[in-house]
């Protein structure tokens, strides 16, 4: 298999790291890959705050709901939705930026953040390192922003813990590719059966890695998707300059 394709198809979320530091050369390669990722209309509306400081990583781990791998990883990359930077360019052109107050603006920067993270994660794996994406950085948007001294119209939308892997777990199974690929039109037939089979497959995976308490996919997903698990998000974003007026 092509080496790049092998990296992509063997990707794992790694949470167990050694104490070995990530070199500056490795880090620069990761960041360059992220910077070169595509963004909506070349807006380059993403920035990355590199956090090596142990105390700061511990605080981020706490704010993210208690995630010890943020502390264990020697580097934590905070992916910033950055409409402060773009606002400077808009002002230079003699206009006023409003995209940060539009739903499309949030959707665009969220999409771009995911693309940047994927590019950086591939660069991480290409250098023999491991990483795990962290969405919990949005649990307290304002506190994380204050910790990193972010300007207005910005917030940390994603995080990426990076380090040398201490021990690698087996590849976590996925739903069949048939539930992902749809030819010409969306194919709903067979989805319930595929989900039922995957529930059992995932339980077997948890047992394989010594986690007999692991939930099947349906129960795990329903724990969050049956409720608004971040009900204060709209108010938190408004405080950061993302006051979405559209319904």
UniProtKB/TrEMBL annotation:
<keyword id="KW-0560">Oxidoreductase</keyword>
<feature type="domain" description="Nitroreductase">
    <location>
        <begin position="9"/>
        <end position="164"/>
    </location>
</feature>
<protein>
    <submittedName>
        <fullName>FMN reductase [NAD(P)H]</fullName>
    </submittedName>
</protein>
<keyword id="KW-0521">NADP</keyword>
<dbReference type="InterPro" id="IPR016446">
    <property type="entry name" value="Flavin_OxRdtase_Frp"/>
</dbReference>
<dbReference type="InterPro" id="IPR029479">
    <property type="entry name" value="Nitroreductase"/>
</dbReference>
<keyword id="KW-0288">FMN</keyword>
<dbReference type="InterPro" id="IPR000415">
    <property type="entry name" value="Nitroreductase-like"/>
</dbReference>
<dbReference type="Pfam" id="PF00881">
    <property type="entry name" value="Nitroreductase"/>
</dbReference>
<keyword id="KW-0285">Flavoprotein</keyword>
<dbReference type="GO" id="GO:0016491">
    <property type="term" value="F:oxidoreductase activity"/>
</dbReference>
<comment type="similarity">
    <text>Belongs to the flavin oxidoreductase frp family.</text>
</comment>
